[in-house]
Design brief:
- This protein has 391 residues and is of the alpha+beta class.
- The protein has two domains: 168 residues, Aminopeptidase (3-Layer(aba) Sandwich), CATH 3.40.630.30; 163 residues, Gcn5-related N-acetyltransferase (GNAT) (Aminopeptidase, 3-Layer(aba) Sandwich), CATH 3.40.630.
- It contains eleven helices and 13 strands.
- Strands 1, 2, 3, 4, 5, 6, 7, 8, 9, 10, 11, 12 and 13 form a 13-stranded mixed sheet that branches.
- Strand 11, helix 10 and strand 12 form a beta-alpha-beta unit.
- Helix 6 crosses helix 7.
- The model has no long low-confidence stretch (mean pLDDT 90).
Amino acid sequence: MNKYTIQELVTPRDNKDFLNLPSKLYKGKDNWVRPLDSDINKVFDKEKNPLYVNGETVRYLLKDINGEVVGRIAAFIDYHTCKATGIKAGGCGFFECINDYEAAEILFDKAVEWLKSKGMEAVDGPINFGPRHEYWGLLVDGDYRPNLGMPYNHFYYEEFFEKYGFKQYFKQYTYRTFLIAENLNKLIAWKAERLLRDKKYQVKMYSEVDPSKVVDDFVTIYNEAWVGDVPGIEEMSIKDGEALYKQLKTIIDPKLMYFAYYDERPVGFFIMVPDMNHIIQKMNGKTNLVGILKYLYNKTFSKPKKALGQIFGVVQEFQARGVDAILIYRFYQECIKDSFNYDVLEMNWIGDFNPRMMHVMEYIGGEIYKTHVTYRKQFDPSREFVRCPII
């Protein structure tokens, strides 16, 4: 009799098992935060995830001889971006597994088998069938409570991925800094003050931006800053921007969101949100009445002290002019006010392919606090492996 059996996820009961498995695997791990079931379900909902227009997914559950679920994995293809790096690459993610490499190997084999059947030549993982700031990368260093949307996993997963033949495609750093005036490098202040002598430059806090322009300005900056510069980044539509804005709107703090303009043209943004994971941790993945009441209670009486950097971008034409400096400078002007509520800033998702942003983090006293890795496995081992290019 086989030690394990693997099956495709089909029924609502299968989906419940998919959602509940991590609760068993991380029992007793104080730093683990169960993601909201509704957020995971949204990834695999064809009506709610726009990537299904040009993509597809499959999910698998692994069971032991007693019928207990001991592993899971998802595989997916975004046909818009799968060729962006010169090799047809699909993805795998939402990997969870007991501490048995044999079980992990079965899961990886099944995902690779499906991807090969669809014409893929490589697999990236663990990644998301969705935006990069959510469920992307394997935690390999920094056993701390994850930030909102960021993965937390057992450290034996690193051995599993590398034993199977995955290689590091890029690292994703989370930087941490204390929000005190002394941590702002004098060079940032000097660059900002010099640039702001040109009155065409402005930095506006979220509350100072015309509400009807917030989404348009965000999408404009996002597309001009990232698309074409970072392989695999797909152009964002206004509809996508509106969906993201709707998702963030309930937790926006105006003091954590800034837009830069040159002669009224949007040229940069610094988007942060309060880190709500200390509240979500108490909800056990549920957004039912009890979960919502817990969220509202804790949001009122347990206000976060940590700001979470979601995305920092400057349009390519303005990237060497100091726009990053004026955004940081304006933010720090708010930080030193008595009315500012946050002590710590953590900036997620600083790729090792982006040395400019790594330098920016150092300018504000940031130090690497956690490290995630995005791996790639090429199906033809004779083909030269190339890491993600520096931007």
